[in-house]
Amino acid sequence: MKQRLAIIFGSRSCEHDVSIITGIQALNAVNLQKYEAEPVYIANDGQWYMGDALKDITFYRAFDPKKAVAVSPAGEGGKLAFYRRPDGKLKILSRGEAAHYTADVALLALHGMNGEDGSIQGMLDLFGVPYTSSGVLGSAVGMDKILMHKLFAGCGLPVLPAEGLTRAAWAADREGILDMLEGGLNYPMYIKPANLGSSIGISRAENREGLANGLDVASAYDRRLLVEQGVKKLKEVNCSVLGYGGYVRVSALEMPLTGDEFLTFDEKYLRDKKGESQGMKSMGRIIPAPIPEETADRIRALSREVFELLDLKGVVRIDYMLDEDEDALYIGEVNTIPGSLAFCLWEHAEVNSAELIDEMVNCAIYAHEDRKASVFSYDSQILKRQSGGNHGKARQSANKF
After folding, report:
1. DSSP secondary structure string, 192-256?
2. CA separation for the pair 108, 133 (Å, rounded)
3. pLDDT tens, position by position, 152-176
4. Which domains does the chain have, with CATH numbers?
5. For 381, how many CA atoms within 13 A lie in the half-sphere containing its CB?
6. Of 27, 125, 191, 288, whose CB count within 10 A is highest?
7. Taking Cα atoms as reference points, which of 8, 17, 13, 38 lies closest to residue 276?
């Protein structure tokens, strides 16, 4: 019997369009002999949709909600159920009403806020539904660059010097913030929204004016900002990790090709010569990365350590920075739901896209069963010791005055 797989993408995020591409790629990669896969699209306004029209990538260029089925998600006996919402409005369900669709597993192809950050993961945990991404903890830490950086530094892992601040602090004391950053960090500096990916809102600053401009740009996207000391002679290397618990596999390593000081959004997603984005597949890269084997071994070991430290699950991508002048290696960030699900990295590790999705589903089910093994109820006797009658009399007495 085929497993029912809901592939969820879109959502209220600056990375909404990238997520659509990842979702459609996953939908096309699924082994139809093993799965009954259905697209589930979350629009920019937060409304959920299903339907055959969602399977065509061109449909999203002029999205027409009338050609899709508006639905609401719910948990139903350990499955993810979707109920129709006539005219997109909330519907009160009648007793025994059948769901429009139920899924055994949710494959998350969401990027950025409201999807990759632990929000939907928490909902699915509450519903009791298996899902393919990391859990709430790993997703939340992986999304917030400030918290991630502090955790890595506190655990003795190699990260560049950095400072975190808020949009409110920047608005309240611009000169003071610039003085603080210049006193603790060297140029060049990279300014990043703390909770955003795909290189959106990131700037490189070579001087005070550039630093101020970069903080203005980043603060338009997030209330928390990370300023990181840069590397003058930078090479980036990416590594993907797959697994859950004691089962961990590491992919081939890639070196992205960039013509700028850092890998931009355009270079990641808009390089396709035909003018059509293929997600992260559009990006220029060298696989395997042309680095010494000793450095590659260090990256693989660090990747396993980070995966276990954050209690990650499914497929993640970890980005590294190589300082060629200093011959030093630093952890950049963790992507708990990588663009295109890191298909390219795994293809070079002799795991095709369909097999990768199989592995992700297996990890999701294993983690779900592991979670179910924990006790979620405790007979505390607290409620049995409460005297409802006395409280009722007290309220009655109060009402007389």
Report:
1. EETT--TTTT-EEESSHHHHHHHHHHHHTT-SEEEEEE--SSEEEEEEEEEEETTEEEEEEEEEE
2. 6
3. 999 999 999 999 999 999 999 999 9
4. 3-131 (3.40.50.20), 161-229 (3.30.1490.20), 234-369 (3.30.470.20)
5. 1
6. 191
7. 17
Largest CA distance in the chain: 84
Residue with tokens 């350590």: 305
Q: What is the DSSP letter of 132?
A: S
pLDDT digits (tens, 9 = 90+) for 102-139: 999 999 999 999 999 999 999 999 999 999 999 999 99
Give the burial string for 227-261 (b: 16+ CB within 10 Å, else e): bbbbbeebbbbbbbbbbbeeeeebbbbbbbebeee
Handedness of CA 390, 391, 392, 394 (dihedral sign): positive
Q: Which pair of structure tokens corresponds to residue 163?
A: 């400072």
> Rounded distance, CA 24 to CA 109, Å?
9
The answer to whether 145 and 195 have CB atoms below 8 angstroms apart is yes
Would you say 215 and 182 are in contact if contact means Cβ atoms under 8 Å apart? no
Tokens of 219: 């603060």
Q: In 43-156, where do the E strands start and end?
A: 48-50, 69-76, 79-84, 101-103, 105-108
